[in-house]
Design a protein that fits this description.
122 residues; Rossmann fold
Amino acid sequence: MKSSVVLLQSDPGIAQSLTTSLLSSFRSVHVAGSTDELRASILKHRARVVILDMEMASLPEVERLSHEFPGLSVVCTHRLADEEMWTAALSAGASDICPTNDTHSILTAAVRNASRARSVAA
């Protein structure tokens, strides 16, 4: 069964592009406008994957999400993602971090980690 994704992205154009790409692999994609809305959407739609713009949420927020929603895969994005940020994001509980404009890598990480989230939840 395909799962749901919740997306928190600061750039509406990128959010639209990601939504279009993600719909080919996920049952539904829900765009949140804030971290509070993100949490509510995770619960409402039983999302297994979150794609989180690091310009809208901090590393402590990634850590909170990971603890609050065990089995949730958090794929972070940032326009200047580098190895140092990748290490910090993974240490905070993220599954991966990708450059914001690399839709293919984001989709690949989301699909790969949705499969892992399903096996953890089972």
